[in-house]
Amino acid sequence: xxxxxxxxxxxxxxxxxxxxxxxxxxxxxxxxxxxxxxxxxxxxxxxxxxxxxxxxxxxxxxxxxxxxxxxxxxxxxxxxxxxxxxxxxxxxxxxxxxxxxxxxxxxxxxxxxxxxxxxxxxxxxxxxxxxxxxxxxxxxxxxxxxxxxxxxxxxxxxxxxxxxxxxxxxxxxxxxxxxxxxxxxxxxxxxxxxxxxxxxxxxxxxxxxxxxxxxxxxxxxxxxxxxxxxxxxxxxxxxxxxxxxxxxxxxxxxxxxxxxxxxxxxxxxxxxxxxxxxxxxxxxxxxxxxxxxxxxxxxxxxxxxxxxxxxxxxxxxxxxxxxxxxxxxxxxxxxxxxxxxxxxxxxxxxxxxxxxxxxxxxxxxxxxxxxxxxxxxxxxxxxxxxxxxxxxxxxxxxxxxxxxxxxxxxxxxxxxxxxxxxxxxxxxxxxxxxxxxxxxxxxxxxxxxxxxxxxxxxxxxxxxxxxxxxxxxxxxxxxxxxxxxxxxxxxxxxxxxxxxxxxxxxxxxxxxxxxxxxxxxxxxxxxxxxxxxxxxxxxxxxxxxxxxxxxxxxxxxxxxxxxxxxxxxxxxxxxxxxxxxxxxxxxxxxxxxxxxxxxxxxxxxxxxxxxxxxxxxxxxxxxxxxxxxxxxxxxxxxxxxxxxxxxxxxxxxxxxxxxxxxxxxxxxxxxxxxxxxxxxxxxxxxxxxxxxxxxxxxxxxxxxxxxxxxxxxxxxxxxxxxxxxxxxxxxxxxxxxxxxxxxxxxxxxxxxxxxxxxxxxxxxxxxxxxxxxxxxxxx
Length: 779
Description:
Layout (H helix, E strand, L loop, with lengths): L33 E2 L2 H8 L18 E2 L9 E5 L25 E4 L5 E2 L3 H9 L3 E9 L3 H9 L22 H13 L3 E7 L5 H22 L5 E5 L19 H6 L2 E3 L8 H11 L24 E6 L13 H8 L7 E5 L3 H4 L9 H13 L47 E3 L5 E7 L2 E11 L18 E2 L10 E7 L9 E8 L9 E13 L5 E11 L3 E11 L9 E4 L12 E8 L7 E14 L6 E14 L8 E12 L9 E11 L29 E10 L13 E5 L8 E4 L6 H4 L3 E10 L11 E6 L1
Parallel strand pairs: 2-23, 3-4, 3-11, 4-6, 6-7, 7-8, 8-9, 9-10, 10-11
Antiparallel strand pairs: 1-5, 5-6, 12-24, 13-14, 15-18, 16-17, 17-24, 18-23, 19-22, 19-24, 20-23, 21-22, 25-26, 26-29, 27-28, 27-30, 30-31
Helix pairs in contact: 1-4, 4-5
């Protein structure tokens, strides 16, 4: 793999979360973000390390009715931003990846020996059902570690067999176990195996390496889960020579068979993908595990979908020239019909190649990025693509007009809300401000980036919403609609989703009132299970329109002839900060079905015009959508809360108010009333508790505030506290490092401070102050 080498920049940890101040220390980020050698990995393994509880785990999806993806190729995205870990410069807006619903696997890549995906990236991927892999790489002078990987940790004592042995290279499971332990502790799902240095041991070493990969696969599945995987990168061949093949063939077949999948190099000529497919289909089914007698729970049968054909977005030797010409290469891979998968390398090209140009801004990048992935915002607009470069002697390869990347892959919904409550604030992972229930608590001139706060952007409104008349009999042209991200206003987080609807006037008799359906997000739901959905929104329109908004859920598939049951819940509020309003519904699909069903949640918008012949335009800001199973009736209700907080100062800093905050979460049942036990034989229990495994509240993140003690030894009301940051950066669920640069100047000069911790649940609930905790720090 001719990988893009890192630029001459110093390593910077993930500091650009919503934190007050600038110049924060590395203590706010992940411990040991990567390892430069296997010796460093051994040093980590020698020290006990608790699993990061702040990283969201992967939730495997179930079969979904209405989703035709079983035989289509998948998308793997390999993220190499300036060599890795350099996409995070303090206190600014930066690159984020936002097309998770089309992606099956994401690889965080760097040129360190063991690359660990940052905790925020793991959470962002898992929230939308995508596997996150780290990287194990050997390049340059990595031959010694290549051998050490197989023989295991070296002893310090003199040791050896008591008698001479004529066996081949011994194979130790040590590093397979340690690497699986690391993935389990940090919350990611496996590794890309990139061996880009020759193996001097030849056949003996390569066979041992193939055997070691099977051990790694088994360890990962045992410790991480059945979804875990190790993917082989097309580099070393079975002789030990470093020779990229650009396809599957007999030279790299042994490594493909031992691993979960193959990621080919990206310098292939146009006919190579079909050669890969032909070669795979020529293999004995017993070899690839497709015969029933050769299947196992650890090593599943191989298919064409397990061959990820490389495409370099930078275009280095890649057919089609990369960039907006990637579609040319993907057309040859043909994931739709041939069924091969695609490995897209260096997708942050849209940022790296443009960021130093005059007039560059985050908004310009987003327009550039969304065009490459989703297509033009205006339907029918032509996207210019540079001519594709051709190798010397290569015949011309005709291609059609530009095709966006997502057009080749099926869109999948996030995990079923019954398994993982669906939450989105439409967060893109960046912002210039931070909002808590519509109130701006932080403003940053240069912005911030925090991948942990990234959510679905509403996967059915890009590149533009598709509206339909709620009454199918209407003959007028359906209104136009557009979607955009609004970084100036939000409910919770750093941005909201702006939807704009416009249309021409109508002289139809019933045009005074029109009603449209606007789908926002696809979901997979379980039939006969009741769900609740809650929306926070606000409207901006001219005075000549009156609105009637409704939240609804509709089937996406035509294979089920049953209407959804949708009922409003009388908890709508219009008195929220910033002009926000809530809508709530309960819904269910009242039919039996063997698998999950694909549905869309969206808005039913009715609008009445004073003069229906006039053109109209209005916009809607969506701040938050949450979906989760309806609570069981008659069980004792509970409220999430925080129990206590503690603080441990950091002596090395120049203020006694810097250190580590920790806290504990809890739940409280509502008070018992109307207690009536008629006799010892009364069959009615005095209370009924929710005995499911998901009743206890889970928190997305915690907001952290500070307030000074006054000279008379008092503190003000919690509402006056100053926001200093959120959790999520270091993978710790209930810990926050108070960096001195987070604290306002007046705080550092106080005689004492009070820190307040405020939870935000996975159902979008921001805890009231009576449910929160404080801890006092006095000089």
